[in-house]
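worker-03 picked up job from queue 'complexes'. Input manifest follows; four sequence lines, order preserved.
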Amino acid sequence: MSKCEQCIVREFSSLKALNKDELVKLAECKTSRLVKKGEVIFEEGENVNGIFCIKDGVCKLTKLSPNGKDHIVKLVTKGELLGQRSMISDEPVNLTAVALEDMQVCFVPKNEIMGFFDKNNQFSMNVMKTICGDLKESDSQMVNMAQKTVKERLAETLLYLQDTFGKNEDETLKIQLTRDELASMIGTATESCIRLLSDFNKSGLIEIKGKKIILKDIPKLKKMV
Amino acid sequence: MSKCEQCIVREFSSLKALNKDELVKLAECKTSRLVKKGEVIFEEGENVNGIFCIKDGVCKLTKLSPNGKDHIVKLVTKGELLGQRSMISDEPVNLTAVALEDMQVCFVPKNEIMGFFDKNNQFSMNVMKTICGDLKESDSQMVNMAQKTVKERLAETLLYLQDTFGKNEDETLKIQLTRDELASMIGTATESCIRLLSDFNKSGLIEIKGKKIILKDIPKLKKMV
DNA sequence: GGCAGAATATGATATATGTCATATAAATGA
DNA sequence: TCATTTATATGACATATATCATATTCTGCC
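worker-03 finished. Artifact:
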């Protein structure tokens, strides 16, 4: 069992507030797990009873809409925690987590984390701030979905993907989403998404290399948003 | 200056976790204020530096979209707190608060509240849970905006308004929103909202009495959502 | 009481987006 | 390697929704 003390990604999450003793305790009770691309980490409605710490990889958090379509609410990556809201609310998770690439995740049971809450003020403040950031972001996304056109949302999402996950040496977006996933992030039909990507390609905003996408004219993309 | 100890609405918010001493301190540093219908309590981008406790009345929290339209993110009523996210994140508020009716609100400066955070675990847990509830709700709304039709959103919103704010003796919705506000809650054009209300009226789902609305067929409205 | 401005209502039309059909390309697995 | 499935692409069309124009009704106010 690897030590949490030496885990670098810990520095990027609320866990950075934990001291040596707490980290030792953490390492003792955590379990590690490899998650294959496409595998489900947890599903909407499930009782998770703890949080996941993402050591490597990216996953999507989706919510099933009554119309039967999944909507991607958020992408979560290395260094971030999963399941905090559910744990604090003491409710089942409201989102499904699915790996977009092979992942390494650690699971820490609820009672351990709740102990830190009581004793380590900085830790609970960090968690709070993270959740507050999520709330702000979610409110903003809600307004985007309600008020922006699909075209605007697509431009915005492409910029977000490059900003957050970067690009490969050949300039293509590092994170690899299917057209279907991209559509379910911006809240539109897959065909509409593909069509708009074609338009963007024709008008020189992006370049499509098979499934890969290169952002060619970032200033124009930004102006669209 | 009225005493917080005797304030009933306190029982409905995170503040219920405060003990007598804390309530006395609270009463000493709070300021009360009457807010007229239509008046702005705070505006997006402002530094509020504290929280508001709503003693009476209802307000809307809106966010300005780049297209120039306001979107109503949430309605907040008697007993609830305003500005918690901003205070914890230590950021300007991301939403604008405007009174929908005459209101009574109390303002408590940030440093006072932050003191309670450190010393009263139950209080900070309450605040956390509230924010977690807001996040869950916001994620759900985001998916609604992205995946549901305007008609479905209208039906859902009407049911929500009756559930949350109740009805008058003549069965009309207690909370009085303009068509414009209703439209900006469901994320559509005012004309579309009015048109759909007319449709709902014609098909017997609701009854329109001037500006007032009566829900006539709740089971059918529920089935639409 | 009557007038100005706002809110509500409705029609005509444009546009964005969804849906269905089908083709092609890519990935997967026996 | 080939066959089968899955992802991407595009056309044709239907539909939801926005926009613009114009009544009509309501409301506050002098």
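worker-03 released lock.
The first strand of chain B starts at residue 31 and ends at 35.
Residues 149-151, 188-189, 191-192, 195, 210-211 of chain B lie near DNA strand D (CB under 10 Å from a C1').
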